[in-house]
Amino acid sequence: MTKENKPRGSSVLRSVSSYRNHVKNYMSESTPHRLIYKLPQSKNEDASDGQAESMKLDTLLENYHIKADSLRAALKIQLEQIHQASRALNLCQSMQEFRGSREEVDAQKALLLSTERKKCIDQELQRMGICVQNRVDFQPNCPLGTLTVSHISIPLRRDWVNDNINKTDRIMYYFICLLKYRETVHATHMVTSDDGKQAGRLEFTNYFQFTHLPPDFRVTLELYSLITGREEIPHEMKYHINGDSLKKMKCGTVSIGGPSGLMDTRFNMVGQLDICLETVQRTRFNFEKMQYIAPVQGVVILNFRCCAENASAVKESGLLNVFDDSKVPHVWHLYYGVLAEGVLKFWRFPEDIQKEPLKVIELQSCINEHVRAESEGLSTRNNLIFLEIPNLESSENTTYKHIFSADNDEEYIRWVDSLERALHHTRLWRVDDGMKTGSIAL
Q: Mind naming one GO cellular-component term on file for this protein (predicted)?
């Protein structure tokens, strides 16, 4: 028997069958009616499969053309920026006052970013084209996640720091980090060797976020450096502020465009590293393809977060019998369960979901991959489901099983499928607190 709480405090005893009828009536009233047609099996299944495959290919091609048009527009912008940066470099190098200046370094940086972004867009277009040729979806599938990078620290060589800490070298190093994933390229601010030698490390405090990542993502971190002479011409003399105008500055012939006007950046890659879901909990990595052209140790410390992006992707609701072993003899309670946001909650009635739930289970704390339970030793009931979690109240390494039972095979299959997909989703992107976080030395 179940008891329903009325607004005025009265209670009505109900049989289990009347309770189920009450829930079904409530759900039918709150859910729009749908007409479901069950068509007879086609005699020509090959033709039906071919039609479905053709529709799938049409959708793939449509998505490809939309994404490709967007990338080609972005590619056009990067090409224009490459021309602009090249013209700025030509202008700086044609004037004695701007050779080796910060303005020239900024133009070198702009040329580096545009060139690398163009390369990544070209590679993404090529990847998408190969996927379409093989009739494979080029877009990421669930479960998706987000990688956030908030701080990058690169130690400098100790011998170089000791030799230069108390003197001003005529040589200046400029450093910048690029983080790449497919067509997306994030760039840090520039840091000089003067900035780093006091602390003994290069500090990049930028905040970057990569969204809609599949579990097999691979983000590349690259460190670039530019070596140039220290700027010695004062700002006033460089811009002729004291009387001379820019028009009076002697300059050589400047190329104003065209293929002959394009230039290559003088920023060179020092090292790179790939970051993936399998490596985010490691604490130390070395640069790959290390080029010893700058006074860095080849190690990077990276602060990041990695978490599931759409925990509500899997949803389910319905009646479940919940096993209660806190009483003797053990009893079963018929509850209304809702799976959403990676959490399984239970109420007495569906209309109670605005109230505090009677039972809550966080799927991120579950340690079992499969939820089908054997009935032997548990109950004479069929269609058993279990969720196993660590027993935090015990000093020993023990676990506790939450046991449920579905009323029929159809509901059982539905709940098993939803729970196992949700467990798989949360497990892919989970650490102790449901979020991959920490420090990683690259």
A: actomyosin contractile ring
